[in-house]
TrEMBL record:
Organism name: Ilex paraguariensis (yerba mate)
Catalysed reaction equations from the record: 3 S-adenosyl-L-methionine = nicotianamine + 3 S-methyl-5'-thioadenosine + 3 H(+)
Functional note: Synthesizes nicotianamine, a polyamine which serves as a sensor for the physiological iron status within the plant, and/or might be involved in the transport of iron.
SUPFAM superfamilies assigned to the protein according to its UniProt record, in alphabetical order: S-adenosyl-L-methionine-dependent methyltransferases (SSF53335)
Keywords, comma-separated and alphabetical: S-adenosyl-L-methionine, Transferase
GO molecular function list: nicotianamine synthase activity
Protein name: Nicotianamine synthase
The keyword Transmembrane helix is assigned to this record: no
Family: Belongs to the nicotianamine synthase (NAS)-like family.
InterPro entries: Nicotian_synth (IPR004298), SAM-dependent_MTases_sf (IPR029063)
Biological processes per GO annotation: nicotianamine biosynthetic process
Enzyme Commission code(s) on record: 2.5.1.43
Amino acid sequence: MNNFSFGRACGCSLRETPHSVVMGCQEELLVEKICDLYEKISSLENLKPSKDVDMLFTQLVLTCIPPISIDVTKLNNKVQEIRSKLIRLCGEAEGFLESHFSTLLGSFENPLHNLNIFPYYSNYRKLSHLEFTILSQHCTQVPTRVAFVGSGPLPLTSIVLASYHLTTASFHNYDIDPSANSMANRLVESDPDLSKRMFFHTTNIFDVSSALKDYDVVFLAALVGMDAEEKVRVIDHLAKYMAPGALLMLRSAHGARAFLYPVVDPCHVRGFEVLSIFHPTDEVINSVVIARKVSKPVHALDHGIGSRIFPCKCSETRAFNPLNQLNMIEELAVEEHLMK
């Protein structure tokens, strides 16, 4: 479709609620471009790495990065449907990309010495550093056992955290795909340190119960749970079996970046006390939500918000500015006695 018409593809109205003319135009242009890219991406023969695939997804990411204030929940149903499909396409493409580079890295004698050939390695370094810094603000002691749910064929978060930040902790990586775990294991098996501290479990996370209580921190990958309902099911399962006081690190998205990854609504993090939410403003796409497993059962209210979850405070999220070290962690205040 050469001359893409926003009205034809996305419906008559961009929003279902009134909005200012200036912001409405800005949003409309943004969503029109995203819908145009969706049409082109969905018409590709496949999403494996190629010149066309790389070009279109690069354009999509660059379109979504600028900090335009857009609430994707208020867009019309047609755009919501496109957003949902686009997130799944992004997930599929990301899986192909990681598998491609994991296989390539696995061909080296020392795979971990060559991680920088992955084009987004620096992004993972920045995101992992951000997550470690956030984690440090809320840990009473250094974590010794960490789980990563949805680690995939290229478990860069676990590798970076284990190599540079949590250098004595063991990492248990969970993925439902045996081939992904096989590729991931090949990357660390030749490393004398990580091969002893990094483990890979091929299983559905819903089949993991008592083992979850052994972890000080559980990371949930952004694409585990592609929509709100799926994400809530996973979080509820973790809340049921994680140890009281354990920390849950969730990856979310904010603004236009929500066309790339699912959004974690703090009100849906039941069974946990949401401590802080962080929104990067640089090329790191994912927002970070950190929550602590409550020590007592949470009884959900009629509107689905737990009695020890603080949605009003947690919805007032702040941006992370990587250029300002003094403001590196812009943390939402939650009374200290409530965190204990």
